């Protein structure tokens, strides 16, 4: 959330000149404002909201009846948790149409005035920048506070939203909490995310009723909470489905339907799972060497536990590929630092394999404790400190009875991996700095500190030095984290692409193979998403059945090919022609930006961009 002064300055530019400043507000909000302008929305004149006609509304409700019914329970629970704080809790469909809502306190009138209720659409296209519409558009949680809303009349609102994913991986809906700015609560975002996860788990259980369901979590006390992952397994251990939480915890392992238990976890299904009683807690270790607590939470109604015939376990995952000189150096430095218990900072773009490198360093350290990964970007800022260092009972709204030890304690004797460290909020940064000073974990809300022995590895895809210069990251913390900095190159820059592709395919399915022409085709791609994008392409291609992948099986799943030089030259000519037209038309309109945009049928933003480029010598005529 940006400072009030910055947002105020950004609004002046938006409302007076129709210009979006990327310097004053976050990239997410500025991009949304730009989209709103491109769609022809005026920040001072929102379109009139109307509820759906009765026939359309009835059809919409019937289409989403199941998820709305499940979400209703969570709306009521969430409403009870924050009752008295003047909130509206809503559940919307994937397109942003509100399907159900509960309003509390004095917020009823603002909700009525804005038609913020069932039957209205709060998509970005209809209601500009707002958390519900932003989540529906971007498929990720969003917070929009005050003047970050696109329309002037929504400047007194705070909105928080979280996506709800269906068992098929598609967006099933959006949970939203809206209030006036003066009554917002710090922990609403965390409570809303928990409610969304509860809906996801209920949808998953419904889709996989009468099947064996396995729950797992890194912490035993969370095994029967919404944070646990759920796997649906067939009689012989074949994977039938994985809940969103399970996919998050096992993101680097083969989770497509039909994958075997042994390709995900170490050991045989019959020996580890099938013969156990429901509710019995046991330990699991996945193929990336992360440990979990697990329990069977549901079984087929008429299917007693049985032990299937023994099958060979899948071979262990391939070793970390490091035939590229830059990757080999990073691997060597990280391993040496881990053996000497020195903090490591891994840099690199998203999807370059930073967590894999961290796990490799953990193995090199030969530490007896666990590898505990933490995605700092996935945790609400106000809860990062509590998750890392634990909390005392009653430390905050929603804190469980008895408190919690925290992930740093869980990593005692092992490795704590802090991914996306650049997204950690300032308060948590200060607490982490204190930990690095004396390695004493201090729970939020008080309690006795505990000394821990932890190897700390952090990773980031942002320039932390630039973040320090911008005041978003502490310089003293950066110096403590970057004792041994290493960086992973982009996949397209690596000299060992073929070895990486072969290793990724083997991790998806030990029998999956790539022909030489297929490897050559893959090597030609840009891979903006790096190894993660490559894994996704190979996973989708492998679903078609063949174990030997040819170019024909890969092409339908490849990203768009780079434009040819001729196309690039044509695009440049078009840009020059448009720039010239904008320059000429603006002169005819006596410098009026709005009239220039109207005559050419383009947005004011595009006119401003052309004028800025003109100052750099790229606008001709």
UniProtKB/TrEMBL annotation:
Which InterPro entries does its entry note? AAA+_ATPase, AAA_lid_NorR, GAF, GAF-like_dom_sf, Homeodomain-like_sf, HTH_Fis, P-loop_NTPase, Sigma_54_int
Q: Which PROSITE patterns match?
A: SIGMA54_INTERACT_1, SIGMA54_INTERACT_2, SIGMA54_INTERACT_4
Q: Give GO BP annotations, semicolon-separated.
A: phosphorelay signal transduction system; regulation of DNA-templated transcription
Which intervals hold domain Sigma-54 factor interaction? 320-543
Q: Which UniProt keywords apply?
A: Activator, ATP-binding, DNA-binding, Nucleotide-binding, Transcription, Transcription regulation, Two-component regulatory system
Indicate the secretion signal residues.
none
- At the top level of its lineage, which domain of life is listed? Bacteria
An annotated Gene Ontology molecular function: sequence-specific DNA binding
State the name under which the record lists this protein.
Transcriptional regulator Fis
């Amino acid at each position: 959330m940006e400072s009030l002064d910055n947002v105020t300055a950004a609004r002046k530019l938006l409302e007076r000149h129709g210009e979006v400043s990327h310097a004053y507000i976050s990239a997410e909000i500025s991009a949304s404002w730009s989209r709103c302008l491109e769609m022809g929305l005026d920040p001072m004149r929102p379109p009139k909201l109307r509820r759906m006609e009765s026939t359309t509304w009835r059809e919409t409700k019937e289409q989403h009846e199941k998820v709305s019914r499940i979400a209703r329970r969570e709306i009521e629970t969430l409403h009870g948790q924050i009752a008295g704080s003047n909130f509206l809790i809503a559940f919307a469909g994937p397109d942003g149409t509100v399907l159900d809502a509960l309003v509390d306190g004095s917020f009823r009138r603002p909700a009525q005035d804005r038609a913020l209720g069932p039957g209205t659409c709060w998509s970005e296209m209809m209601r500009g920048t707002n958390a519900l519409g932003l989540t529906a558009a971007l498929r990720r949680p969003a917070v929009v506070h005050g003047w970050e809303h696109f329309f002037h009349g929504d400047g007194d609102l705070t909105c928080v939203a979280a996506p709800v994913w269906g068992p098929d991986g598609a967006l099933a809906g959006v949970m939203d909490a809206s209030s006036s700015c003066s009554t917002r609560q710090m922990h609403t975002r965390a409570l809303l995310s928990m409610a969304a996860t509860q809906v996801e788990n209920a949808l998953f259980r419904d889709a996989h009723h009468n099947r064996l369901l396995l729950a797992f979590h890194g912490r035993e006390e969370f095994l029967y909470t919404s944070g646990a992952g759920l796997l649906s397994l067939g009689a012989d251990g074949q994977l039938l489905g994985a809940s969103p939480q399970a996919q998050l915890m096992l993101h680097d392992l083969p989770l497509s339907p039909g994958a075997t238990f042994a390709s995900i976890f170490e050991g045989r299904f019959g020996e580890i799972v099938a013969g156990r009683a429901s509710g019995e807690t046991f330990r699991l270790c996945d193929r990336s060497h992360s440990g979990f607590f697990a329990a069977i939470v549901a079984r087929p109604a008429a299917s007693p536990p049985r032990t299937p015939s023994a099958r060979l376990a899948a071979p262990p995952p391939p070793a970390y590929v490091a035939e590229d000189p830059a990757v080999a150096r990073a691997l060597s430095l990280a391993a040496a630092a881990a053996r000497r218990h020195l903090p490591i900072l891994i840099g690199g773009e998203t999807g370059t394999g930073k967590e894999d490198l961290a796990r490799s360093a953990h193995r090199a350290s030969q530490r007896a404790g666990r590898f505990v990964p933490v995605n700092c970007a996935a945790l609400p800022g106000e809860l990062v400190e509590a998750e890392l260092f634990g909390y005392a009972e009653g430390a905050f709204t929603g804190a469980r009875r008895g408190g919690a030890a925290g992930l740093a304690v869980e990593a005692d004797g092992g490795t704590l991996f802090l991914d996306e460290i650049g997204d950690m909020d300032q308060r948590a940064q200060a607490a982490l700095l204190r930990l690095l000073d004396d390695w004493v974990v201090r729970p939020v809300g008080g309690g006795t500190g505990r000394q821990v022995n932890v190897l700390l590895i952090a990773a980031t895809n942002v320039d932390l030095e630039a973040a320090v210069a911008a005041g978003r990251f502490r310089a003293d913390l950066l110096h403590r984290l970057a004792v041994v900095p290493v960086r992973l190159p982009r996949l397209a820059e690596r000299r060992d692409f073929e070895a990486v592709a072969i290793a990724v395919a083997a991790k998806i399915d030990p029998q999956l193979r790539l022909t030489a022409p297929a490897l050559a085709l893959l090597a030609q791609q840009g891979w903006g998403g790096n190894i993660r994008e490559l894994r996704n392409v190979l996973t989708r291609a492998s679903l078609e059945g063949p174990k030997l992948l040819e170019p024909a099986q890969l092409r339908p799943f490849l990203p768009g090919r780079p434009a040819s030089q001729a196309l690039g030259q044509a695009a440049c000519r078009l840009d020059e022609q448009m720039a010239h037209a904008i320059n000429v038309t603006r002169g005819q309109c006596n410098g009026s930006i709005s009239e220039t945009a109207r005559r050419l049928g383009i947005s004011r933003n595009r006119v401003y961009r052309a004028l800025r480029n003109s100052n750099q010598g790229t606008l001709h005529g």
